Each structure stands twice: as C-alpha cells, then as structure tokens.
Amino acid sequence: MTAEPSRVYDAVLARRSYSKVTPETPDTAEIERLLEAAATAADHAGLAPWRVIELRGAARERLGDAFARVAMEGGADADAAESQRRKPLRAELLLAVVVSYRESPKVERWEQEAAAAGVAHLLTLLLDDAGWGAMWRSGQATRSAPVAAVHGLGVDEALLGWIYVGGRPDGIRRERHATVDLAEHHSVLE
Ligand SMILES: Cc1cc2nc3c(=O)[nH]c(=O)nc-3n(C[C@H](O)[C@H](O)[C@H](O)COP(=O)(O)O)c2cc1C
C-alpha cells in the first residue's frame, strides 16, 4: 500500500466540530442520503442496532423542558435550569443517536453501542464533508427518563447524544485538526 492522496483521509483530518451554527439545515432527504452511507459502518452480525431521530421545531423545546426538569430534580437553581432549557435551541436541527439493543446470543450490548457510535461518527464526518456545521453533544440528562420520553424510546433503547447541525457561520477559522501523540496511543505487539 502506498500513501496515495486520499479524499477520505483529507476529509477525516479536516473535520471540525462547530459549536455555533446558523439556522440553515439539511432537509430530511439529505439526512437520509448521508445516513444511507453512514449505515455502512462496521456492525457485528448486521444487527443495525441504532436509529436516528431528527428533532426540529418544537421537539427541541420539549427536549429543553426535559433537560430543565432533570436539572431541577438534581438540585439546580432556576438560572441553571433555564440554561439547560435553552441548550437544544443552539441549532435548528438535532439528530438524536439511539442505540436499539437487539437480542443476540453473541453480540453484547457494548458491541452494539460501538456499532451505533460508528454510524454517528460517520454521519458527523459526512455532514462536515457536505459543508454543514455539526457537533456531537451529550449531557447529564442524556440517559434520563424524561429525555427518553421526549424521543419515544423503547425499553431496550438508549441515547448516545445528539448531533447538532446547522450552517457554518462566516468568519470561523477552520484549523486542521491536531492529532495525538502516537507514542502514547499506538504500540505494536509481536
Ligand atoms: C459521545 C460524545 C459526546 C460529546 N458530548 C459533548 C458535549 O456535551 N459537549 C461538548 O462540548 N463536546 C462534546 N463532545 C465532543 C465534541 O463533539 C467535539 O468532538 C469536541 O468539541 C472537539 O472538537 P473536534 O470534533 O473539532 O475535535 C462529545 C463527543 C462525543 C463522541
């Protein structure tokens, strides 16, 4: 194998999260196009143990209400709860990433979460490559009952967070991603 120039390699290195996005969003047809590609992520036994839910409009407000409720139940004051309520309003489109655990004698739950996370990573990369601003976010309330209820999750489902999606604001510097010190993250056993 030679180190040929690769569009994929460059796209992976170029991807950056956008914490601020504009109101423009991809439509459902575009999300489905990207998801068809992301769905090819490695998946032990082909269980497809995941689904993605688009949250637009008032659904984001219901999610904010659930965030605020969970915060209040955890002892947050009114200001902190209000801050939680506004969090889903940071983008016009949130893609909730759900792991849908399948009954399987050989594929454990952690493997199914890994497969679902793979889809989410690919989807984030594809959104970035298509020119959208995207950022995968979670939070303390991610696995709470009120938040699960907003999404209509089943008993064998759990959230892996949300990909916040929008347009890219002008004037944001997009620096190439720093990579890790491979001496700490890579080794060879023979
Ligand atoms: C499962 C998951 C949850 C995350 N949750 C948050 C979050 O709640 N808040 C946050 O600032 N970053 C969160 N991140 C990290 C961002 O998505 C992003 O990777 C980080 O800001 C670094 O930016 P970069 O993607 O440009 O390297 C999360 C990442 C993953 C994989």
UniProtKB/TrEMBL annotation:
Signal sequence, renumbered to the chain: none
Nitroreductase domain mapped to chain residues: 13-166
Enzyme Commission designation: 1.-.-.-
Keyword tags: Flavoprotein, FMN, NAD, NADP, Oxidoreductase
Keyword Iron: no
Cross-referenced SUPFAM superfamilies: FMN-dependent nitroreductase-like (SSF55469)
The UniProt record lists the keyword Transferase: no
Any Pfam family the entry gives: Nitroreductase
Highest taxon of the lineage: Bacteria
Cofactor: FMN
Homology family: Belongs to the nitroreductase family.
PANTHER family found in the cross-reference section: NAD(P)H NITROREDUCTASE YDJA-RELATED
The protein's name: Putative NAD(P)H nitroreductase
